Amino acid sequence: MNVEKKELDKSQIELNIEVSLDELKPFLEKGAISLSTKNKIEGFRPGKAPFDIVKQRLGEMAIYQEALDSVVSHFYFEAVKQEKIDTIGQPKIDIEKVAPGNPIIFKAQVALTPKVTLGDYKSVKVKMAKVEVDAKAIEKVIDDLKKMQAKEVISLEPIKKGDKVEVDFNVSLDKVAVDGGQGKKYPLIVGDNVMLPGFEDNLIGMNKNEEKKFQLKFPEEYQNKMVAGKLCDFEVKVLEVFKRELPEANDEWAKTVGAKDIKDLNEKIKSNLEQEKKFQEEQRVEIEILTAIVKKTEYSEIPEVLIHNETHRMLHEFEDGITKQGIPFDEYLKNIKKERKDLENEFKDKAEERVKTSLVIKEMSDKEKFTASDEELKKETDRILETVKDNKEAQDSIQSNGYQEYLRTIIKNKKVVEMLKKECIG
């Protein structure tokens, strides 16, 4: 392997890496096995065709392409170790040359780890709040369980709170239909308050096939900025009304949800709520500790690429959250009259804080000399492999050099957090 190193501005470095034919050979052989597993080759069982046969049937370039990711991952990390470079984040890879019978040449642009000067992080002290679960919280869970088992019976009586209804509705502003403000056979339980405040109240007393018009004002902070804070017109037609019969919360019913009796169910719910609250409190305390340590820390220049990558990661997380609500992200941006770059700018400060936090954790891990043993790495790898045991491609990715290094970092980071909990929680 031949490596040429070039220093760039903003604490970045570029590695020009050339992998010789001799070094490529074992990776090409594995690539051929992988190809013969994925593609049926007459006369041979999957994965058993000789290299020359795979080369003849599928082409040598196909073997190179199949091996490329493994080659880049392996030799990038080898180059970093050879050049003794302290890098952070994922590299930007550009393939320069891939051709049968030739070395593979690629460039890797990566950020250098900024210098981090820690303050006295063990002096940070944070109080953990006492975790308590009251009777109302337990009662709410039981009510929710009862609602899940409710029997629904068609009713011709006027709508009451607790009834399930199916409605058609249309929302308009100044006689123009609001984008996304329509529903057909829309199901809801009156009183669950999933709709705009006041919407469900207007349904109470209505009958099947009855129509009604009314006005409601949208909240100022409503996500659709076209109607936020404005008085809109609603047209509703009731299609169906269902009375809901909820089971009685007794010993027999408790058995249907996996408990011995109603007392046992209450105890299990209380235990689950306590665990959930404890987890939330631990998360809050971890953030408070790390935020305090970040404020005590001094940093050299932080590579812009780290902040850029974290900003994009945050944007994708946000987009996923919006999409899971059933709202197309482009439509969401249109409604709030913003573009992706506007959100990126809004996320930038928070992204920088995230980067600083990750740098602090890494520095503490190095200072405390935390390591991830081979046994710990294998245990974590096996745990993750179990979740994708039917996905060969995912398994190969998890066992790649790059992902294994990532897992080592995760293991060390967990040790840092555990250390901080012992030292900083007062």
Describe the protein in words.
There is one protein chain. Among the domains are: 2-112, 2-Layer Sandwich (Alpha-Beta Plaits), CATH 3.30.70.1050; 150-245, Chitinase A, domain 3 (Roll). The protein has 426 residues and is of the alpha+beta class. It is extended, with a radius of gyration of 30 Å. The chain has helices at 21-38, 51-58, 60-82, 135-148, 251-256, 262-296, 304-324, 329-336, 340-367, 374-387, 392-398, 401-424; strands spanning 2-8, 12-19, 87-97, 104-112, 116-117, 151-154, 164-173, 176-189, 211-217, 231-245, 298-299. Strands 6, 7, 8, 9 and 10 form a five-stranded antiparallel sheet that branches. A hairpin with a 2-residue loop joins strand 7 (164-173) and strand 8.
